[in-house]
Design brief:
The structure holds 2 protein chains of 2 kinds. Chain A is an alpha/beta fold. Chain A is about 30% helix and about 20% strand. In chain A, helix 7 (about 145-150) packs across helix 8. The chains are: A alpha/beta, B alpha/beta. Chains A and B meet through helix 2, helix 6 and helix 8 of A and helix 2, helix 3, helix 5 and strand 7 of B. The structure holds iron/sulfur cluster.
């Protein structure tokens, strides 16, 4: 599965409050509404600039903080098709896979991208390409179960397709 | 090769030895969610196509985050949680009973070696009771409601050896902040943090909970204390010869080892906007403070308010400073009422309220104004955490928080203790 999109570059330690401030999740469970506030405390204009298919490239420890699954769901709802980061926080990583938001760990990822570049991610081959500069970065592909969950769009969709359980 | 505590926990659960990195499926003994994560877990449960809760006796809900509800949206999310609990015979702890990580250990029978997951990152608090506890997202929680099981990667472990005992005015909060400062916000990602050494036995259960509570702030999967004489007063060991279990083997293999002398530690704060931005209080002394919050699942227990009351009763809260004190549960509140601590706090000028997460996460009570500075005993100082991205949060112990409320500026509590 190939994902292609315009890149937004974010820094290190992007936390779950920066992804979606807690106050909004206690006002509504409507993700279209919540998506309007994605990354609000980081940059209030970002939500309106992100468009469908865009890819986030970030530094270390993306998604640190709370276990709120709202975080990857809101990013996905905002239209982001994948996050490529140097590393991810544990619970965010797991949640992102569960909700079908591809998360790709690539060493020094943020050094090879700038805002507006076009990135292409090949989940099966384990390849991230910066189409704008031609640079290709490798990552070790996930076990096929996880790639399948991501391709299906999350654990729920995967389950419906498989009829299997733990 | 010997085993770490977390390896022993997994071995006890699975009936076989495990190695770090192995993916295993484990039965879950207890799982809890709150009003912030429970409603989404119900959606996820339905998305998974599940109809019946596997074993409702192992599921709990707690309404603690926006409690009582500050707006109509939160009220409706709570209604959804209550309805699901009713339909599925799930026990729900209601508004005012307390914060989940306090209410669960107070009311549920904890056994060493249990596997507990919570739809909240600070579920790691419960590792203080020599058990495996970790935070999960709503879909994983829905999976536990569906099947009673969850998959885990067996973590590597970090050993933290403690010796000596704290000087007056230094608390376990200073220890865990120091560790996070040393390790960094992602320095222990995916690890089990295991506390050992002679110093452990000087730590009360409440102090251990404070330490475990914050291991997630360095990325850890869980934190755990060995089973000892302190633990056994708080857990059910009837089915266990406690002396031989949940202590690491001498030759256990650790990915990282750190060692601290408790008597050498000093009061510290985590300065804005990251928990690993740890500095000695003395470097920041004199910085003006607008609001002090003493409470949360990190520091909302009896010992926290006892020391705060001691410091606050000397001169009271400085005029112009708001000091909010919130016990972590109704039981803590009642204990403090009965032993006169609440009287001291209120007399000193604190605003004392029923148990809720409240100011900790910036949903209601104590939202900061732009440019304001807060000292908080909670566990996160991220930008905007207390509801306003233009404000600054310094994390500190209850002693430092109380001393700062008295002086109106960040203050080393050792100046106000004793003497
Ligand atoms: S007190 Fe704060 S950190 Fe603890 S559970 Fe509540 S919101 Fe989370």
């Amino acid at each position: 599965m190939n994902l292609r999109g315009r890149v937004w570059v974010l820094g290190d330690h992007i936390n779950t409050d920066a992804i979606i401030p807690a106050k909004y999740k206690f006002r509504t469970g409507d993700f279209k509404e919540l998506a309007k506030h994605v990354f609000e405390d980081l940059d209030p204009t970002l939500a309106s600039k992100i468009s469908k298919g865009d890819i986030i490239v970030a530094g270390r420890n993306f998604g640190m903080g709370s276990s709120r699954e709202h975080a990857p769901r809101v990013i996905k709802e905002a239209g982001v098709s994948a996050i490529v980061a140097c590393s991810f926080a544990r619970i965010f990583f797991r949640n992102a896979i569960n909700v079908g938001l591809p998360v790709i760990e690539v060493k020094d990822a943020n050094k090879y991208f700038k805002e507006g570049d076009i990135a292409v991610v090949d989940l099966e081959k384990g390849l991230v390409k910066n189409e704008t500069t031609g640079i290709e970065l490798k990552f070790s592909p996930y076990p096929s179960f996880i790639t399948d969950v991501m391709k299906a769009g999350g654990l729920a969709a995967y389950r419906r397709g498989q009829g299997r359980s733990l | 090769m010997g085993e770490t505590i977390v390896q022993k926990l997994f071995r006890t659960r699975l009936g076989r030895a495990v190695k770090p990195g192995e993916i295993v499926v484990a039965d879950i003994d207890l799982a809890y969610a709150h009003d912030g994560t429970g409603p989404l877990a119900i959606d996820a449960f339905r998305e998974l196509g599940s109809n019946t809760v596997h074993d409702p006796s192992k599921i709990r809900f707690v309404i603690d985050h926006a409690s009582p509800s500050p707006n109509e949206g939160a009220s409706n999310l709570q209604l959804k949680l209550r309805a699901f609990a009713r339909e599925n015979s799930i026990r729900i702890y209601e508004v005012g009973e307390g914060i989940c990580h306090q209410v669960i250990p107070e009311n549920e029978s904890l056994k060493p070696g249990m596997f507990i997951v919570g739809a909240d990152s600070h579920t790691v608090t419960l590792g203080a009771f020599s058990l495996f506890a970790t935070g999960v997202g709503s879909t994983d929680f829905a999976e536990v409601m569906t099947s009673g099981k969850l998959w885990f990667k067996v973590p590597e472990a970090m050993k933290v050896t403690l010796n000596g005992c704290f000087q007056p005015g230094v608390m376990s909060k200073d220890l865990i902040l120091r560790i996070i400062g040393d390790v960094g916000a992602d320095g222990a990602t995916y690890m089990s943090i295991e506390f050992q050494g002679e110093g452990v036995k000087t730590l009360s259960m409440a102090s251990r909970m404070t330490v475990c509570n914050m291991v997630v702030e360095m990325g850890a999967k869980n934190g755990v204390f060995p089973l000892d004489e302190v633990t056994v007063k708080h857990v059910d060991t009837s089915s266990l010869n406690y002396k031989s279990v949940f202590k690491p083997d001498e030759d256990a293999e650790y990915a990282m080892s750190l060692s601290y002398r408790l008597d050498e530690l000093e009061p510290v704060v985590a300065a804005p906007h990251n928990v690993d931005n740890v500095k000695p209080v003395k470097e920041l002394e004199g910085l003006e403070v607008n609001q002090v919050f003493i409470g949360s699942c990190t520091n909302g227990r009896e010992e926290d308010f006892e020391i705060a009351a001691k410091i606050l009763s000397r001169k009271g809260v400085k005029k112009g400073v708001r000091c909010i004190a919130i016990p972590a549960s109704r039981r803590v509140f009642l204990n403090l009422l009965r032993n006169g601590i609440i009287d001291k706090l209120v007399s000193a000028g604190c605003t004392v309220t029923h148990s809720t997460c409240g100011p900790c996460l910036g949903v209601h009570f104590g939202i900061l104004g732009s440019g304001e500075v807060a000292v908080s005993t909670s566990n996160r100082n991220f930008k905007g955490r207390m509801g306003n991205p233009e404000s600054s949060i310094y994390l500190a112990s209850p002693a430092t928080a109380a001393a700062s409320a008295v002086e109106g500026v960040i203050t080393d509590p050792r100046k106000l203790i004793g003497g």
